[in-house]
Amino acid sequence: MAVDLSEVSNLSARILSEVEQAVIGKHTLLERIIASIFVPGGHLLLEDFPGMAKTLIAKSFAKVLGLNFKRIQFTPDLLPGDITGGYIYNRKENRFELRRGPLFANILLADEINRASPKTQSALLEAMQECQVTIEGETMQLPKPFIVIATQNPIEYEGTFPLPEAQLDRFLLKLSVGYPTEDEEQAILKSRRERQEDEFNLACVTDAKQLLEIHKAIEKVHVDAAIDAYIIELVAQTRRQHKIAVGVSPRGSLALLKLSRVWAALQGRDFVLPDDVKQFYKPALCHRLVLEPNLWMQSGAADELLDSIMAKVTVPVI
After folding, report:
1. What's the chain's average pLDDT?
2. Which of 100, 123, 137, 247 is most buried by a 10 A CB count?
């Protein structure tokens, strides 16, 4: 069933309302996650401390969106075949059978992705970019939509393997959950007392087919040539800064374009404004920068550089 562009805002509000029953006090974060999910291949990287509801967020969206959900706990001894699957010999049938790995899901939670070896992390690259995997020389398509929600812990580096730039670039957004306020934490405790169980009873709002139709509807959002020029200049400035060793690639420009269109649709508009671009400038580009070595240990350096760039670039009048 086709989804009209005018329905996208209402659908997103219903999804958000349902997820917020489980994830309390993170309205802005959840809005950005919805925007990421409404982009084809909108893979998401959540970086925060343990116990900040990263897994809960992924499971809640999978339930409300009616999508197949799988989880992988990444460890140093995890092998590529453990996530892609492989052929197993069936003695009864006297033949090899394909056993699909957890990659064959709509939403894959890659928990603590930086704990896996580079060899295993690389197995995700083809899946994230091409929505397919290769097993024993045979290429197989993954279910659509296919979304990777990866998590990593920013404080424990022992036994971890930092994600290479090529893999970081595959993530549409990098977000942090953040601590709840005291009032929000009180609401979390109250909700748990009233439920009398850990699980949440969330209703399914949509399904995989309808989500694919939403992707098509977003393509109808109009983008003025001045908005294109604005995005290009914001990205080009990252390649001219002496404090940035490697600027944002064209994939970053495309990410801003896609997210801006989604955000416009979520606001009930069929055209993009400069504010839609600003909404995602940092979360979409921050992880795509490679800073000069003297800034590697400086917290928030990438954010500050992007803020200074945004302040310099002239905002178009639409």
Report:
1. 90
2. 123
Two tokens at 299? 């917290």
Torsion of CA 257, 259, 260, 262, to 10 degrees: 120
Q: What CATH number was assigned to the domain covering residues 5-210?
A: 3.40.50.300
Distance between CA atoms of 27 and 23, rounded to whole angstroms? 9
So what's the pLDDT on residue 253? 95
pLDDT 10s digits, 220-243: 999 999 999 999 999 999 999 888
- Distance from C-alpha of 68 to C-alpha of 145, rounded to nearest angstrom: 10
Q: Does domain 221-312 have CATH number 1.10.8.80?
A: yes
Please state the domain extents for the chain: 5-210, 221-312
Whole-model pTM?
0.91
